[in-house]
Amino acid sequence: MGMLCLLLSVSGAAWAQEAGKISGTLSDSLTGKPIEYATVALLQSGNTQALQSALTDANGRFSFTAVAPGNYQLAISFLGYQKKFMSQVVVSAAKPEATVGNIRLVPSTTQLKEVTVEGLRPTITQEADRMVVSIEGTALAAGRTAYDVLATSPGVFIDQEGNIQLNGRAGVTIMLDGKLTYLSARDLRSLLEGMSAENIRNIEIITNPSSKYDAEGSSGILNINLKKNTVQGLNGSVYAGGNYNFKQYGYSTGASINYRTGPWNSFLNLDMARRVGGRDATFTRVFKGDESSTYFDQVADGNYKVEGPPAVRLGTDYSFNDRHSVGVMGYYATNQLHADFLTETYIGPSPDQPTQFIDADNFNQNRFSNRTANLHYMGKYDTLGTTLTADLDFVKIKNRGDADFYNYYYDLTNPGAVTQDFLYTNTPNEFDIYAAKVDFTKPLAQGRKLEVGAKASRVISDADSRFYFNNAEVPVLDTKRTNHFVYDENIYAAYVNFNTKLTERFSLQSGLRAEQTQSKGELLTTGDVTKRSYLNFFPSLFLQQKVSEDYQINYNYSRRLQRPNYGQLNPFFAYRDPFTYWLGNPDLKPQYTNAFSISQVFKKAYNLTLSYQHTQDVIVELVAIDPETATTVYYIGNADDSKNLSLTANVPYSVMKNWESNNTLIVAYNEYNVAIDNGQTVNDQVFYMLQSNHTILLPKKVKLELNGVYQGPSVYALYRADARWWLNVGVKKSFMDDKLDLSINANDIFGTQHLIIGATLGEGNVSDWDQYFRQRNISFTLRYKFDRGAKVEERRRNNLEELNRTGG
C-alpha cells in the first residue's frame, strides 16, 4: 500500500502542474454520431513517439492536460474507420488551451446495394495479447446458450463431461466479465446453460495471461464479456425461442433493460429457460483375469431437463464525477434438475455368451442456487490513464440433490431367477466464497506503464454425502460409501507488471505474481485431516517486435498452475451403475505449467502461433478395474507430466464482397506420461483441427452463418478419441428497421458429433465407449430491441476467481 500511496501522490503532483490543454471531439462522417472508445495519441511534431494517449468518452470527447508549450500533432485510430492525422496543433503561453473542434472519421467500409459490407466485419479480432470473438448480433448466437457458443470459438473443445480444452489442452479457466468462475464442470455447465448467448458481447481467448491475472488456468483463460448498459435513457430487448433435439423440447425467454439518468447507470437482465438434453451411449469393457476374462456390454440412454424461475442479474453504477464511481451488482439463479440414466448390461465370459443381464434405472434430481454480490470502485486520477479499481465479492452456491437407483439382476443360466437391489443417495453441498482485490495502473514517462495489485480470497466447501440401502421400508445407511467433507482454502496474492518501449521496434512487458495458498480438508466421517501451505511465484514475459506496419512478432513466456476443484478433493464414491463409480482424491496435488509461444501477426489480421507447454503433476481422470467383480472406478489422480507442441493459424478470408470467413487450423503433438500397473505408459498423438466460420449477407437483410469443425484423433491422459466433425447453420432476418430479429439455427445437422473413446489400461483390459450428447437440434429465437440516446461509458468489473472449482 505504501507504493500505491507514493504513486498516487506523484500522479496528484503532476496533475496539479498542468501547463496547457488540447481537446476536441470525434464523430462518424456519415451519421454524425459521436465515436466512443477511439484512440487519440498526442505526438510532438516531427516525432513518432506518443507523449500521451486518450480514449474518447460517450460523447466522443477527448482531452490532454499538462501539455507544455509547443507544436503537436494528433494520431487518431478506431476499428472500422480510416486512420486520421491532424498537424499544427499549437499550445503557447498566450493560448494555453487549444481546441481542434469536431473531427469526422471516415468508415473504412463502403455501402452496397441492399447490403452493407460493414455488417461483415470479421467476428474474430487478433489483439496484442488475446483473440476476441464477437458474439453480439450473430445468427449463431440466437436461441443458444453461453455454453453452446463456447464450442464455436477458435481452438475450443468441450469433452464428454463438459470439461473445456483450449488448443488441445485441458486446464482452462472461465471468466465472466473478468470474474474467474471457480465452478466444477457440472456447475459451470448449469450456470452457462442458464445464460442466453443473446446477452454475450464477445469472448476473449487469452492463451498466455500476464501476471495481472490469477495464476489459475494452465492452458489459458476464456473471458465471456456480457453486454453492458450502453445507451442513455431507457433501452433494452426482449426475446423468446424454442428448441427441439428430436427427442425433447425446450424453450428460452428473457429481457434486458437498461436505464441511465443523471449519475445513475443501471441494468436488469432476466433469463428463463427449460433446457433439455441427454445422451445415447454404448460401453464395452474387457476384464482380463488370471484364468478367464469377463466381457461387459452396456447400452445407455440418458435424459435431463433443467428449469426454474428467471435468473436475475441486477446492477447499478453511481458516478460522483467524471473521475470516481462506485457500483453494485447482484445475481440470483435457481433451477431444478430432473434426470434419468437407464442402462441395460450383459456380462459373460465372451461377447456372445452372456451369463447375466442387469437392468439399472437411475433417477436423480437437484435444486441448484447461486447468489452473487459485488461492490466495485473505479477512480481515474489524471488524463494519462492513472486508475485504481477495487472489488469486494461474495458468492453462495447450494446444491440439494438426491437419487434413486433401481437395479434388477437376471441370471441367464437360470431363467426366472431375478434379484433386485435398490439404493438411495442424498448429496447436499454448498460453497461460500469471499474475495477482495485492488488494481492500480500508473502510466510513466516515455510510454512506460506500471501495474500493481493484490487479492485475498477464502472458500469454504461443505459436502455431506449420504448413501443408503433402500431394500426395506426404512433405508439403511451405508457407512462405507457415506462421508461428510469440509474444505477451507485461503489464497493471498500480489503482482507487479511493468511495460516499457525498448526501441522503436521492441517493447517489453514483464511481471511477477506471488500466491500463498493455505488449505485444510477434513473428512468428518473418519476424522482424517489434510493440511497444505505453499507459496509459489509466477513470472511472465512478453516481448513484442514490430518488424513493419504489417508484420509483428510476439515472444511470450508464463508460468501457471491448476488447483484441484473442491469436488475432486472429496473422497466420495459417486454411483452411476452397479459396476461403475467415480471417486475423489484428498491427496490430489496442483499441477504447474511452463508455457512458451512465438506469435506472428500479419496485417493485424492473420495470426500464426508456435507454442510449447510442459505440465508437471497433471490432474487427470484415471481408471481402476476389478476383474473379479467387473467393476470400474474412475478416479482423479496426478500423472507425471504432459507435453504439448502446437502450431495454430488464424486466417480471415473474404470469399467475395458479401461473404467473409474466419478459419482456424491447429496442428499439435500431445504426450502424457502416466503410471499404471506399476509401469509407465506414454500416450501420445499428433492432433489436428480445422474450424471454419462463414458469414454471408443475402438480399433483404438476411444473414447466413456457417460453422464447420473437423477434429482428428486426440489423446488425454489414458484416453484416445477418434476423429469427428460437425456443421452448424444459422439464418437471421431483421425487420422493422432492424429492431426485430428472427433467427433459426440447425446444429450438428448431420448428427456426426459422436464421441468415440478408448482407454489404455494395459494387460489386455479394454474400456471403450461411444456417446452422442444430442448436439443435433433445431431452434428459433425472436428478439425485439429498443434503444435511444447516446452511448455512455462502460464500467467493467474485473472480479472473482473462486467459482470454477466448487463441486465434483
From TrEMBL:
* Keyword Ubl conjugation applies: no
**Signal peptide segment:** 1-16
What range(s) does the Outer membrane protein beta-barrel domain occupy? 380-784
What subcellular compartments does it reside in?
A: Cell outer membrane
**Pfam families associated with the record:** CarboxypepD_reg, OMP_b-brl_3
Keyword Signal assigned to the entry: answer is yes
Which InterPro entries would you find in this protein's record? Beta-barrel_TonB_sf (IPR036942), CarboxyPept-like_regulatory (IPR008969), OMP_b-brl_3 (IPR041700), Plug_dom_sf (IPR037066)
Q: What keywords appear on the UniProt entry? A: Cell outer membrane, Membrane, Signal
Top-level taxon: Bacteria
Chief location = membrane
* SUPFAM superfamilies documented for this protein: Carboxypeptidase regulatory domain-like, Porins
| Entry protein name | Outer membrane protein beta-barrel domain-containing protein
Q: What is the lineage of its organism?
A: Bacteria, Pseudomonadati, Bacteroidota, Cytophagia, Cytophagales
